[in-house]
Amino acid sequence: MIYRLTEDSRQESQEALKTFAQGLIDEFLVVMESRLTTEVKEVTQQEAEFRETFLKALDRLYRRLMAMGTLMPNTDFTTLGMTLISKITKLDAELSLSRIKQCYEKSVKESGFELRSHPGSSQEILGSILATLVGQMKSGLNKLQDYTHSDYHFSQNSEFRQKMAIVTVREGLVVESFKYLINFGNKLMENGPCDSLIWLLVAKLYLDIEMGTVAYMVNSVEADYDIKREKKNTQWSLTNVTEIISSFNSTAKKLVEEFVSSQGNQLAELMKDAILNQDLISSGKEPIGPQLQMRKVIEILTLMEKYIDFIFPDTDPLAYIKSEKSSDSSKRSYSTLPSGGLTSKTGPLQRPNWSNLDPNMSSNIQKLFSEKVEIFGEVGFQKSAILMSIVKIGLRVSLL
Questions:
Q1: Cα–Cα distance, 182 to 218 (Å, whole number)
Q2: Which of 14-28, 37-51, 235-249 has the lowest mean pLDDT?
């Protein structure tokens, strides 16, 4: 009986000590989380040696929590330590993601001014933005890689390594970076008027990212952290790479369509003002060459063609002709020109002066008045398709 009472008292004492120690550890880890959160923000901006010191201190904390579990029976404080370290790695990834966002937004903003002043440097601008983006992502990945160094005891925890690889690195940094870029493109259209050329530039950038950057970055992470996509029993889901690539392509299309709609509507307003102000339809005198307002339209188209050509050049010299091939329903000609050319009561009409535009484009513009064409259709990623779509939207005022 005395032995039983002694055993019960011993168990009660152990439970009381365990509860007391657990409370102190909880308070201690709350203080440490606050301290480490502040330090990790400072360490990310310091040299590599400061980061190494920080990680060694983090490992010492983890080892001491392990030692306490050895001293006290039926206790395990390593789980609490791993939870704290997981929060720190997640915060580190979020800080890297924040730097990626800042650098990207700054690069895009500066690219608008650069493109206006040096239109021919569009490919260099795109290359610079992409290089900066990939460089920032790799920098963040290298910093997170430090947490997996074999010298640190916490890195030997298999669950920590798996969770960090999938949740923090692949999904938290790489995939989130790509999702941010897609969201940035959508917000660029939602936020209203801006430098319209940025829409085109970002669209071309997204096509470049779609072509290889997404697969390259995700495959690199999966190889470094031994992540298997075919694993079905994992408790953390993997974002499908194909979905990310598809989202970049669809966002690029939306940006190009937004550019076409914006520029086409502006062109339509100019042409509408020209028709209404000059009353060109009811004018008895035939104009000698383009009027002032129409001359302005031609100048805008010429300048626009130059900018678009630097971003989405035509690889096929016959692209204008191919882009405007009529469908079976559009081959009905509304009017045909007499063999002798256009004439009027006052004499032969002079043809419009399209000398500043591409000859294939001017031919297609004239065809717009003689054939039934589709005004609102899908826009391709080339100068001919983009420019002719703008022209068709602009010329729709003549049908009103």
A1: 16
A2: 37-51
